[in-house]
Amino acid sequence: MIDHITLNVGNLEKSKLFYLSALAPLGLSAVQYLQNWTAIGKDNQPVLWIQQSTTTRPHLSLAFKAESQRQVDEFHTAAISAGGISHGKPENRQQESHSNRLSYSAFVLDPDGHIIEVFKPLE
Q1: Is the pLDDT reported for residue 123 higher than 90?
Q2: 74-90, pLDDT tens digit by residue?
Q3: Whole domain around residue 25: which residue ranges?
Q4: CATH classification of the domain holding 78
Q5: From CA 11, how far away is CA 7, in angstroms rounded?
Q6: Cα(55)–Cα(73) distance, rounded to whole angstroms?
Q7: Alpha carbons 47 and 45: distance in angstroms, whole number
Q8: Which of 52, 82, 92, 93 has the fewest C-beta atoms lying within 10 Å of its C-beta?
Q9: In angstroms, rounded to a whole number, what is the distance separating the alpha carbons of residues 110 and 115?
Q10: Parallel, antiparallel, or unpaired: how do β-strands 115-121 and 61-65 relate?
Q11: Whole-model pTM?
């Protein structure tokens, strides 16, 4: 089981604004600040650490599970408003990465080009 993920970012302040805005619809917020790091999570438990770095490659793909289609929509809107670039508008998709199940998902590129997905499995 994964406890948390650390993501290297080129501009901590810009990425902090992006991630805090984009992930707020999922109930995630900053849970700890350090000099060159920010921890984002829920109930004081970090799930994503972003750290200032001169290396942001290789690009990563991160997926967050939503509780509703509305959260997927709100993520996409918030992420774009915070400077992200749409990499797939919210819609139903058949996804191999999710055991070939149908999900309602949206994709955004963060300020460093990492792919951020939020999805709601469709039963």
Answers
A1: no
A2: 999 999 999 999 999 99
A3: 5-52+60-121
A4: 3.10.180.10
A5: 12
A6: 31
A7: 6
A8: 92
A9: 7
A10: parallel
A11: 0.90
